[in-house]
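Hello forum,

I keep getting stuck at the same step: I have a sequence, I want structure tokens, and every attempt I make locally crashes halfway through. Rather than fight my setup again tonight, could one of you with a working pipeline run this one for me? It's a single chain of 433 residues.
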Amino acid sequence: MLRHLRSSPVYLRWGLLFSASAMAAVLVAAGLWVYARVGHAARTVTQGQAIGIAYSARRTLKMVGETNASVLHEVLDELAVQGLRYVEVLGPDPSLVAMAGKQAPENTWSSASNLSPAATIAFGPDGSSARIIFRAPEGQGAANRPLGQVAQPGSADHPQFGKQLLLEVDSAESHALAWRARVTLVVSLLATLVLLGISAVFWRISRNAEKASAQLEHDRQLKVLGQMSAVLGHEIKNPLASLKGHIQLLLEKLSPDHAGRKGAEVVLRETMRLEELSRQVLEFARTGAVERESVDPAAVVQTAIENVGGADIHFHAGSIPATWLLDSARMEEVLVNLLRNAREASSTGQPVDVALNVPADRHLVMEVRDRGEGIAPGEEERVFEPFYTRKAKGTGLGLALARLIVEGHGGTMSARNHPEGGAVFSVRLPPPT
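Reply #2:
Ran it on my machine without issues. Output:
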């Protein structure tokens, strides 16, 4: 199994993709986990600083004994270095008694949570700021009571005699923690994107290398096949010519009612079929360059239609130039092959369509459409392979030879199914240079 994995590019590609995806998931998860944990730590640090600042402010107000704006400004100036940004005192109504500093918008804060029965705290978006509200009762001993502890009814410290103290605090340490958490998360996301990008590049390189290797192997096989076809074609051609000649002489001597005449005609017919096969094999093996000249592309198509007897062939010519550089004889051979195939594939009485046009990319496009069953899914490229055919008496060389001729012109040949049924074979020839 391990040896198979090592030798298969497909398994290697999927292994690379799986590994990269797993590492990317770990990086993202680690970044999110760090961000969440640091956010929790930032809230804890901010809460501790806010409580400490609240105790200090409360103690100062108790010592001064007043809660006017001037006193609050002094408290703000004293505790600003610790992070105090805003302070206000509310009466029992609650109505504003005094304030100092710049208050943050109300939508800055999350929902308040209880620190104790008489104190609440709310945090900013990243946990580095907080707003704490608690009772600040007046009277002897109030400064020594723990934060948020509710005084006994009837005592001087009872909330009905006290005021609410609101403070807004920014923690520089929490800001630094939150910033580091954001940086860590961003770095994790960037690393994930880079990792996935590198994986995609290697995936593409591997795919292209596999396709190139497959194409080289295919070309090697075609080369060997061409050499073998050339040898076989030459070796078969001469005996077939001799056999054909003798059979024709024999038929000339046999009377129409002779018992052996029918068998001789069968031999002649099969000999001619083998001769045609030999010709196609030699054509396929031939690698000579096409001889292009300026010809009328519409005339080339019309000649091919006439060669196959075009009563049932509909020719549609769009806006095309009067001349194009083509090897007219070999291009006619391509079209004759396509037209014959289309006629054989179409149902009886159904027309064959031939279209000729020049689209926006300035290529000359020839299309032949039949009215048959179409091409089986996944065989759009296989139909051009040598010796591949679904015909009972086909050689499988016609389309392979046609594609070689088109490629000799620098063009491409493809096949597809038409949305309304049947197959469409397209020839695209580049503009003259």
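The chain is about 50% helix and 15% strand. If your local run keeps crashing, start a new thread with the error log.
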